[in-house]
Amino acid sequence: MKHISPKVIEFLADLSQNNYREWFHANKKAYQAAKDDFDRFVAQVIEALGPYEDLSDLKPKDVTFRIYRDIRFSNNMTPYKINMSAAFGKGGRKSAYHPFYMHIEPSGKSFVGGGSWGPSAEQLAKLRQEVDYNAQELKGILAEPTFKKHFGDLQGEKLKSTPRNYGADHPEIELLRHKQMIVMSEIDRKLLTSDELIAHIVELFRSMQ
User: Fold this and answer.
1) Are 113 and 122 in contact (CB under 8 A)?
2) Which H or E run includes 143?
3) Number of Cβ atoms within 10 Å of the Cβ of 2
4) pTM here?
5) Is the pLDDT of residue 42 over 90?
6) What gap in Å lies between CA 52 and CA 203, rounded to an integer?
7) Would you give the distance in Å from CA 43 to the centre of its chain?
């Protein structure tokens, strides 16, 4: 199966309307069936990305995220995520690098993305240094027609002030204000159940690379 199973979509849609523990426990078999189907799809994605990225040591359990939400520091007390997701890259979902991310949420919010979501202070300093040194190369990538078609503009949280060691008059100050550097591409709901889905995901990954 080269697409997302209807079981996955149906379960997540039902969960979004019944996000509480009693319902989840009563429907644990439906969750497990959806999870198994999602894992099989993830295994196919790992295989399809193999020619472009060394993922040979990874299994679905290494890249998929738990459905249980951490609500300790959240105002949203619903216990479960209403999506299934995975991060593909060296080290899987715990990668210290910047893996390719796939997010399946049937309410029209499915997407793939990548980049630097939560860089350390050291990583962010290095990113800004590379922007300072190679801004034209970066801007060329962001303006490349295929990349632009898939991802639009660079996204991510930005400083309102000026980052340390850079002046407000720096010609690339807007890029340097980024605290995150990410790109995202929405997946149309109809594509989720199309046999073209894996080919589309690979195309996005190659463009992002």
Assistant:
1) no
2) helix 121-143
3) 14
4) 0.91
5) yes
6) 11
7) 16
